[in-house]
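chain and backbone:
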Amino acid sequence: MISLARKSILHEWRRFAPAIFAIAFSGILLVVQAALAVGIFATVAVYIEKSDAELWVGFPGTPSVDQGRYISNRTESFVRMHPDVDRTEPFSWAGGVWRSRPGAGDVSVVLAGIDPRPGSLTFAHAVSPDLREKLTIPGAVLVDIADREKLGVAIGSSAEINGKTVHIAGFTEGLRGIGSINVISSLSTARHLDPSLHYSDDVAYYLVKLRAGADPARVKDALSPKGANARYQAWTAKEFGDRSTNYWLFESGMGTAFGLSSLVAVIVAIVITSQTLMAAVAASIREFATLRALGAPGSHLRSVVLQQALWVGVVGLVIAGAVSTLILWLAQLAYIPVAISVPINIACGVLVLCVAILSGFAALSQLSKADPAALLR
Protein backbone atom coordinates (compact mmCIF):
# COMPACT_ATOMS: atom_id res chain seq x y z
CA MET A 1 0.00 0.00 0.00
CA ILE A 2 2.89 2.35 0.74
CA SER A 3 4.34 1.58 -2.69
CA LEU A 4 0.94 2.19 -4.29
CA ALA A 5 0.65 5.63 -2.64
CA ARG A 6 4.13 6.64 -3.75
CA LYS A 7 3.75 5.32 -7.29
CA SER A 8 0.36 6.96 -7.75
CA ILE A 9 1.91 10.35 -6.94
CA LEU A 10 4.82 9.74 -9.32
CA HIS A 11 2.55 8.52 -12.12
CA GLU A 12 -0.14 11.18 -11.72
CA TRP A 13 1.96 14.02 -10.34
CA ARG A 14 -0.08 16.63 -12.20
CA ARG A 15 -3.09 15.83 -10.02
CA PHE A 16 -1.09 16.32 -6.85
CA ALA A 17 1.02 19.30 -7.98
CA PRO A 18 -1.43 21.96 -6.67
CA ALA A 19 -1.47 20.29 -3.25
CA ILE A 20 2.32 20.09 -3.18
CA PHE A 21 2.67 23.76 -4.07
CA ALA A 22 0.04 24.73 -1.48
CA ILE A 23 2.00 22.88 1.20
CA ALA A 24 5.27 24.41 -0.03
CA PHE A 25 3.77 27.91 0.00
CA SER A 26 2.49 27.37 3.53
CA GLY A 27 5.91 26.15 4.68
CA ILE A 28 7.73 29.07 3.05
CA LEU A 29 5.39 31.59 4.64
CA LEU A 30 5.68 29.98 8.08
CA VAL A 31 9.48 29.74 8.04
CA VAL A 32 10.06 33.23 6.63
CA GLN A 33 7.56 34.89 8.95
CA ALA A 34 8.93 33.09 11.99
CA ALA A 35 12.50 34.06 11.07
CA LEU A 36 11.43 37.65 10.47
CA ALA A 37 9.43 37.86 13.70
CA VAL A 38 12.21 36.49 15.89
CA GLY A 39 14.88 38.46 14.00
CA ILE A 40 13.03 41.77 14.14
CA PHE A 41 12.03 41.49 17.78
CA ALA A 42 15.51 40.26 18.74
CA THR A 43 16.95 43.56 17.46
CA VAL A 44 15.51 45.19 20.56
CA ALA A 45 17.87 43.12 22.69
CA VAL A 46 20.87 43.86 20.48
CA TYR A 47 22.05 46.46 23.00
CA ILE A 48 22.29 43.70 25.59
CA GLU A 49 23.61 40.88 23.42
CA LYS A 50 26.36 43.02 21.88
CA SER A 51 27.55 44.29 25.27
CA ASP A 52 29.85 42.58 27.75
CA ALA A 53 27.96 43.01 31.03
CA GLU A 54 26.53 40.35 33.33
CA LEU A 55 24.02 42.74 34.92
CA TRP A 56 21.94 45.71 33.79
CA VAL A 57 20.64 48.25 36.30
CA GLY A 58 17.76 50.50 35.31
CA PHE A 59 14.38 51.92 36.29
CA PRO A 60 12.16 49.46 38.22
CA GLY A 61 9.73 47.45 36.09
CA THR A 62 11.24 48.45 32.75
CA PRO A 63 9.52 46.09 30.25
CA SER A 64 12.08 46.44 27.46
CA VAL A 65 15.52 47.96 27.06
CA ASP A 66 14.17 50.59 24.66
CA GLN A 67 11.55 51.67 27.24
CA GLY A 68 14.11 52.68 29.86
CA ARG A 69 13.69 55.76 32.04
CA TYR A 70 16.52 57.68 33.66
CA ILE A 71 17.84 56.78 37.07
CA SER A 72 19.91 58.89 39.43
CA ASN A 73 23.67 58.91 39.01
CA ARG A 74 23.88 58.12 42.74
CA THR A 75 22.78 54.59 41.81
CA GLU A 76 26.29 53.81 40.63
CA SER A 77 27.69 54.32 44.13
CA PHE A 78 25.25 51.82 45.64
CA VAL A 79 26.01 49.26 42.94
CA ARG A 80 29.78 49.57 43.28
CA MET A 81 29.59 48.91 47.00
CA HIS A 82 28.81 45.23 46.38
CA PRO A 83 31.99 43.17 46.81
CA ASP A 84 31.35 41.07 43.67
CA VAL A 85 31.05 44.11 41.37
CA ASP A 86 34.25 44.67 39.41
CA ARG A 87 33.24 47.81 37.53
CA THR A 88 30.25 49.73 36.22
CA GLU A 89 29.64 51.74 33.10
CA PRO A 90 26.89 54.29 32.29
CA PHE A 91 24.76 54.03 29.17
CA SER A 92 22.63 56.99 28.09
CA TRP A 93 19.55 56.70 25.95
CA ALA A 94 17.98 59.67 24.20
CA GLY A 95 16.03 60.67 21.13
CA GLY A 96 17.10 62.96 18.34
CA VAL A 97 16.12 64.43 14.99
CA TRP A 98 18.52 63.73 12.12
CA ARG A 99 18.98 65.87 9.07
CA SER A 100 21.67 64.90 6.57
CA ARG A 101 21.57 68.01 4.41
CA PRO A 102 19.76 71.37 4.21
CA GLY A 103 16.24 70.99 2.93
CA ALA A 104 16.14 67.23 3.54
CA GLY A 105 13.40 65.65 5.62
CA ASP A 106 13.92 64.99 9.30
CA VAL A 107 14.47 61.42 10.54
CA SER A 108 13.92 60.33 14.13
CA VAL A 109 16.92 58.52 15.59
CA VAL A 110 17.89 56.93 18.89
CA LEU A 111 21.09 58.40 20.29
CA ALA A 112 23.11 55.92 22.34
CA GLY A 113 25.95 57.42 24.36
CA ILE A 114 28.69 54.96 25.32
CA ASP A 115 32.08 54.99 26.97
CA PRO A 116 34.56 55.08 24.05
CA ARG A 117 37.57 53.85 26.01
CA PRO A 118 39.15 50.49 25.05
CA GLY A 119 37.67 47.56 26.94
CA SER A 120 34.37 49.29 27.58
CA LEU A 121 31.31 47.14 28.25
CA THR A 122 28.71 48.78 26.00
CA PHE A 123 28.67 47.30 22.48
CA ALA A 124 31.92 45.48 23.24
CA HIS A 125 31.06 42.90 20.55
CA ALA A 126 29.87 45.40 17.93
CA VAL A 127 32.11 48.47 18.07
CA SER A 128 35.76 47.75 17.31
CA PRO A 129 38.63 49.46 19.18
CA ASP A 130 39.37 51.55 16.06
CA LEU A 131 35.80 52.86 15.94
CA ARG A 132 35.84 53.54 19.68
CA GLU A 133 38.95 55.66 19.25
CA LYS A 134 37.19 57.68 16.55
CA LEU A 135 34.32 58.37 18.96
CA THR A 136 36.68 60.29 21.24
CA ILE A 137 36.60 63.12 18.68
CA PRO A 138 33.84 65.60 19.64
CA GLY A 139 30.82 65.32 17.33
CA ALA A 140 31.78 61.87 15.94
CA VAL A 141 28.97 59.34 15.53
CA LEU A 142 28.50 55.83 14.17
CA VAL A 143 25.48 54.48 12.27
CA ASP A 144 24.63 50.97 11.15
CA ILE A 145 25.56 50.12 7.59
CA ALA A 146 21.97 48.98 6.96
CA ASP A 147 20.79 52.58 7.53
CA ARG A 148 23.43 54.17 5.30
CA GLU A 149 21.12 54.72 2.32
CA LYS A 150 18.21 55.83 4.47
CA LEU A 151 20.31 58.52 6.12
CA GLY A 152 22.17 59.41 2.93
CA VAL A 153 25.62 59.49 4.51
CA ALA A 154 29.15 58.22 3.93
CA ILE A 155 32.23 58.05 6.12
CA GLY A 156 33.50 61.58 6.64
CA SER A 157 30.23 63.27 5.68
CA SER A 158 28.38 65.63 8.01
CA ALA A 159 24.82 65.78 9.28
CA GLU A 160 22.79 67.42 12.03
CA ILE A 161 21.22 65.96 15.16
CA ASN A 162 18.88 68.32 16.99
CA GLY A 163 20.36 71.14 14.92
CA LYS A 164 23.95 70.42 15.95
CA THR A 165 26.61 69.24 13.51
CA VAL A 166 28.00 65.71 13.68
CA HIS A 167 30.30 63.81 11.34
CA ILE A 168 30.16 60.14 10.39
CA ALA A 169 33.22 58.39 11.81
CA GLY A 170 32.30 54.89 10.61
CA PHE A 171 29.68 52.20 10.20
CA THR A 172 28.67 49.39 12.52
CA GLU A 173 27.02 46.13 11.48
CA GLY A 174 24.24 44.27 13.27
CA LEU A 175 22.96 47.26 15.30
CA ARG A 176 19.88 47.98 13.24
CA GLY A 177 16.98 48.96 15.49
CA ILE A 178 13.30 48.00 15.38
CA GLY A 179 11.28 50.91 14.04
CA SER A 180 14.14 53.35 14.66
CA ILE A 181 17.70 54.19 13.67
CA ASN A 182 20.51 53.74 16.17
CA VAL A 183 23.19 56.41 16.27
CA ILE A 184 26.16 55.75 18.56
CA SER A 185 28.34 58.44 20.07
CA SER A 186 30.46 59.02 23.15
CA LEU A 187 28.72 60.06 26.36
CA SER A 188 30.11 63.58 26.09
CA THR A 189 28.88 63.95 22.51
CA ALA A 190 25.45 62.59 23.46
CA ARG A 191 25.12 65.14 26.27
CA HIS A 192 26.10 67.88 23.83
CA LEU A 193 23.52 66.78 21.25
CA ASP A 194 20.57 66.16 23.56
CA PRO A 195 19.46 69.06 25.77
CA SER A 196 17.87 66.70 28.30
CA LEU A 197 21.27 65.14 29.00
CA HIS A 198 23.26 68.34 28.99
CA TYR A 199 22.26 69.48 32.47
CA SER A 200 22.19 66.12 34.23
CA ASP A 201 24.48 63.19 34.92
CA ASP A 202 21.54 60.77 35.18
CA VAL A 203 21.63 57.86 32.74
CA ALA A 204 19.26 55.20 31.43
CA TYR A 205 21.27 52.18 32.58
CA TYR A 206 24.39 51.09 34.37
CA LEU A 207 26.16 48.07 32.95
CA VAL A 208 27.82 45.91 35.58
CA LYS A 209 30.83 43.64 35.17
CA LEU A 210 31.25 41.11 37.98
CA ARG A 211 34.39 39.60 39.42
CA ALA A 212 35.41 36.16 38.21
CA GLY A 213 33.37 33.40 39.81
CA ALA A 214 30.51 35.63 40.98
CA ASP A 215 26.95 34.37 40.55
CA PRO A 216 24.99 36.94 38.47
CA ALA A 217 21.60 35.80 39.79
CA ARG A 218 22.69 36.10 43.42
CA VAL A 219 24.29 39.52 42.88
CA LYS A 220 21.19 40.69 41.03
CA ASP A 221 18.96 39.79 43.97
CA ALA A 222 21.34 41.52 46.38
CA LEU A 223 21.49 44.72 44.30
CA SER A 224 17.76 45.10 43.66
CA PRO A 225 16.16 47.17 46.44
CA LYS A 226 13.03 45.75 48.03
CA GLY A 227 9.81 47.69 48.50
CA ALA A 228 7.45 49.89 46.51
CA ASN A 229 9.75 52.93 46.64
CA ALA A 230 12.72 51.28 44.93
CA ARG A 231 14.61 53.71 42.71
CA TYR A 232 16.30 51.11 40.50
CA GLN A 233 16.28 47.40 39.65
CA ALA A 234 18.91 44.92 38.44
CA TRP A 235 18.53 42.19 35.82
CA THR A 236 20.91 39.59 34.47
CA ALA A 237 21.83 40.15 30.83
CA LYS A 238 19.93 37.07 29.65
CA GLU A 239 16.89 37.91 31.75
CA PHE A 240 16.75 41.48 30.45
CA GLY A 241 17.29 40.36 26.84
CA ASP A 242 14.47 37.80 27.05
CA ARG A 243 12.28 40.34 28.80
CA SER A 244 12.79 42.87 26.00
CA THR A 245 12.18 40.35 23.21
CA ASN A 246 9.05 38.91 24.86
CA TYR A 247 7.64 42.40 25.38
CA TRP A 248 7.71 43.13 21.66
CA LEU A 249 6.74 39.60 20.67
CA PHE A 250 3.76 39.09 22.98
CA GLU A 251 2.73 42.40 24.53
CA SER A 252 3.22 45.00 21.79
CA GLY A 253 0.62 43.50 19.43
CA MET A 254 3.11 43.06 16.62
CA GLY A 255 3.67 39.40 17.49
CA THR A 256 -0.08 38.81 17.32
CA ALA A 257 -0.16 40.23 13.81
CA PHE A 258 2.58 37.83 12.70
CA GLY A 259 0.71 34.94 14.32
CA LEU A 260 -2.59 35.78 12.63
CA SER A 261 -1.01 36.01 9.19
CA SER A 262 0.65 32.62 9.76
CA LEU A 263 -2.69 31.15 10.82
CA VAL A 264 -4.28 32.41 7.60
CA ALA A 265 -1.50 30.73 5.61
CA VAL A 266 -2.14 27.42 7.41
CA ILE A 267 -5.91 27.60 6.85
CA VAL A 268 -5.47 28.38 3.15
CA ALA A 269 -3.01 25.50 2.79
CA ILE A 270 -5.44 23.07 4.49
CA VAL A 271 -8.33 24.13 2.24
CA ILE A 272 -6.36 23.97 -1.00
CA THR A 273 -4.56 20.74 -0.13
CA SER A 274 -7.68 18.95 1.09
CA GLN A 275 -9.65 19.98 -1.99
CA THR A 276 -6.84 18.85 -4.27
CA LEU A 277 -6.52 15.49 -2.52
CA MET A 278 -10.30 15.02 -2.60
CA ALA A 279 -10.26 15.71 -6.33
CA ALA A 280 -7.39 13.23 -6.80
CA VAL A 281 -9.25 10.55 -4.84
CA ALA A 282 -12.47 11.26 -6.76
CA ALA A 283 -10.59 10.94 -10.08
CA SER A 284 -9.23 7.55 -8.93
CA ILE A 285 -12.50 6.29 -7.50
CA ARG A 286 -12.81 3.45 -10.03
CA GLU A 287 -9.32 2.23 -9.14
CA PHE A 288 -10.22 2.27 -5.44
CA ALA A 289 -13.48 0.46 -6.23
CA THR A 290 -11.49 -2.18 -8.09
CA LEU A 291 -9.26 -2.70 -5.06
CA ARG A 292 -12.36 -3.09 -2.92
CA ALA A 293 -13.73 -5.66 -5.36
CA LEU A 294 -10.45 -7.57 -5.14
CA GLY A 295 -10.82 -7.80 -1.37
CA ALA A 296 -8.73 -4.89 -0.15
CA PRO A 297 -10.13 -3.78 3.22
CA GLY A 298 -11.25 -0.21 3.72
CA SER A 299 -8.48 0.41 6.24
CA HIS A 300 -5.89 -0.26 3.52
CA LEU A 301 -7.56 2.19 1.15
CA ARG A 302 -7.63 4.82 3.85
CA SER A 303 -3.95 4.11 4.43
CA VAL A 304 -3.25 4.81 0.75
CA VAL A 305 -4.94 8.21 0.93
CA LEU A 306 -3.12 9.16 4.11
CA GLN A 307 0.18 7.96 2.65
CA GLN A 308 -0.45 10.14 -0.38
CA ALA A 309 -1.10 13.10 1.90
CA LEU A 310 2.11 12.40 3.79
CA TRP A 311 4.16 12.20 0.58
CA VAL A 312 2.59 15.46 -0.59
CA GLY A 313 3.67 17.02 2.70
CA VAL A 314 7.21 15.68 2.48
CA VAL A 315 7.74 16.88 -1.11
CA GLY A 316 6.19 20.25 -0.28
CA LEU A 317 8.42 20.50 2.78
CA VAL A 318 11.55 19.87 0.71
CA ILE A 319 10.55 22.60 -1.75
CA ALA A 320 9.71 24.96 1.11
CA GLY A 321 13.08 24.33 2.74
CA ALA A 322 15.03 25.09 -0.41
CA VAL A 323 13.07 28.24 -1.29
CA SER A 324 13.06 29.52 2.32
CA THR A 325 16.82 29.11 2.55
CA LEU A 326 17.25 31.20 -0.60
CA ILE A 327 14.85 33.90 0.61
CA LEU A 328 16.47 34.19 4.03
CA TRP A 329 19.94 34.30 2.46
CA LEU A 330 18.85 37.19 0.24
CA ALA A 331 17.30 38.89 3.28
CA GLN A 332 20.60 38.73 5.14
CA LEU A 333 22.39 40.23 2.15
CA ALA A 334 19.92 43.12 2.30
CA TYR A 335 20.61 43.57 6.07
CA ILE A 336 17.06 42.48 6.94
CA PRO A 337 17.05 41.09 10.49
CA VAL A 338 16.15 37.39 10.35
CA ALA A 339 16.88 34.68 12.89
CA ILE A 340 17.29 31.11 11.66
CA SER A 341 17.32 28.38 14.30
CA VAL A 342 16.85 24.63 14.42
CA PRO A 343 13.86 24.74 16.82
CA ILE A 344 12.01 27.17 14.55
CA ASN A 345 12.67 25.04 11.47
CA ILE A 346 11.58 21.84 13.24
CA ALA A 347 8.39 23.46 14.55
CA CYS A 348 7.48 24.78 11.09
CA GLY A 349 8.24 21.41 9.50
CA VAL A 350 6.04 19.54 11.98
CA LEU A 351 3.23 22.05 11.45
CA VAL A 352 3.44 21.66 7.67
CA LEU A 353 3.26 17.86 7.93
CA CYS A 354 0.27 18.21 10.25
CA VAL A 355 -1.42 20.36 7.61
CA ALA A 356 -0.83 17.62 5.03
CA ILE A 357 -2.17 14.87 7.32
CA LEU A 358 -5.27 16.90 8.23
CA SER A 359 -5.89 17.43 4.54
CA GLY A 360 -5.59 13.68 4.02
CA PHE A 361 -8.22 13.01 6.68
CA ALA A 362 -10.52 15.52 4.96
CA ALA A 363 -10.06 13.64 1.68
CA LEU A 364 -11.11 10.31 3.21
CA SER A 365 -14.75 11.28 2.75
CA GLN A 366 -14.41 10.52 -0.96
CA LEU A 367 -13.65 6.84 -0.28
CA SER A 368 -17.28 6.22 0.59
CA LYS A 369 -17.96 6.41 -3.15
CA ALA A 370 -15.54 3.58 -3.89
CA ASP A 371 -18.36 0.99 -4.24
CA PRO A 372 -17.51 -2.08 -6.32
CA ALA A 373 -21.04 -1.94 -7.70
CA ALA A 374 -20.07 1.30 -9.42
CA LEU A 375 -17.87 -0.78 -11.77
CA LEU A 376 -21.02 -2.32 -13.25
CA ARG A 377 -22.53 1.00 -14.25
